[in-house]
Design brief:
- The protein starts with 6 loop residues before the first strand and ends in a 5-residue tail after the last strand.
- The protein has 333 residues and is mostly beta strands.
- A hairpin with an 8-residue loop joins strand 4 and strand 5.
- Helix content is 0%, strand content 51%.
């Protein structure tokens, strides 16, 4: 139990391949986790409820990519996903040749995934994520061009949803990434800016009568908080009164409590001493929230400076990625 009472338990779920960096993962209908590896073009699945299970390599995209940047479920499809691949140079912080793929899985993984190339994504900077809006439209946040693109996966057409100064790199030494994670609710588009240490939201509306638009902004960007430096990962509670993100340099998990009436925010560190957490997902199992966290251990990058504390070293190879489950208790803000 932590200081604010919001974290009840922390469990090491599994150890992913050694020397790996995972950025994207989702909960599948069968209860397993699907995870994308950034430093290799590999897609894995594993059982988060069985710490003895071995992560299974489902597919490699090595013919056209050397890294998987992120993934998302496809609305209206069961156990089907869009996977964003690219040619990645993590040392020099270069990203290019982005491709969106459709991946259909079998419920018990007894047959190989069906993988289809959807479209190449061109004339962008760094496509850092892929967020579903409808069966046809996804959003692509661009961390280098400080904007969010709307992508039609049927035609490959791209259009600009929004570009804003709040998405720019802050410009400090060692700051390379501005706009990072994006999440969508019916009322807001939420996003983080890693170098600025900000959580922002934009009022939106769904466009039901135009499948090619699907979503539009209805107001200016609102800065919710600016005290989450080097933030990575983004997860929202169902009622949008709690937002979780992590510090990949300091090993923190933050909870940003948001007053639903005033929009005022209060940030608390609810978990410390993780080893380079890079992604978080909040899932509900039997109506109980669980925060899934991926930690990358010790990563050898000249621009990636971490705290010296390695709390998992006694139970896991710290040079390996691990997945951690944090059981949370939702509170009324």
């Amino acid at each position: 139990m932590l200081d604010d009472g919001s974290i009840q338990d922390v469990v090491l779920v599994t150890q992913l391949p050694s020397d790996s960096w995972f950025e994207g993962f989702v909960l599948r209908p069968n209860g397993k986790i699907l995870a994308s590896r950034l430093d290799e073009p590999e897609l894995y699945t594993f059982n988060a409820d069985d710490p003895d299970s071995t992560p299974e390599l489902l597919h490699s995209f090595e013919e056209e990519a050397n890294g998987l940047i992120n993934l998302c479920p496809i609305p209206g499809a069961s156990d089907e996903y869009l996977v964003l691949s690219g040619v990645v140079d993590l040392v020099n912080i270069e990203f290019e040749e982005f491709i969106a793929w459709r991946v259909a899985l079998s419920p018990d993984d007894s047959s190989p995934p069906k993988v289809t190339k959807v479209t190449k994504i061109e004339n962008t900077g760094f496509c850092i994520g892929i967020i579903p809006i409808s069966e046809r439209i996804v959003l692509i946040p661009d961390s280098f061009k400080n904007c969010i693109w709307r992508l039609d996966i049927e035609t490959g057409n791209m259009s600009l949803l929004i570009a804003d100064d709040t998405m720019k790199v802050a410009g400090g030494e060692g700051d390379f990434f501005g706009l990072n994670r994006v999440r969508i609710t019916d009322e807001f588009l939420w996003f983080t800016n890693t170098s600025a240490g900000t959580l922002c939201r934009i009022p939106i509306e769904r466009v039901q009568d135009d499948a090619l638009v699907a979503i539009r902004t209805t107001g200016p960007v609102q800065t919710v908080t600016d005290d989450i430096p080097h933030c990575d990962g983004l997860a929202l509670s169902r009622d949008q009164t709690a937002v979780y993100t992590c510090s990949y340099t300091d090993g923190f998990i933050w909870k940003v409590g948001i007053d639903p009436t005033t929009g005022e925010a209060k940030t608390d560190v609810v978990l410390k001493n993780l080893s380079a957490p890079t992604a978080v997902e909040l899932v509900y199992v039997n109506d109980q929230p669980k925060l899934l966290v991926v930690c990358c251990g010790e990563i050898e990058m000249n621009w990636f400076v971490q705290d010296d504390q390695n709390p998992w070293s006694g139970i896991a190879n710290i040079n390996s990625a691990v997945s951690v489950t944090v059981v949370t208790q939702e509170e009324t803000v």
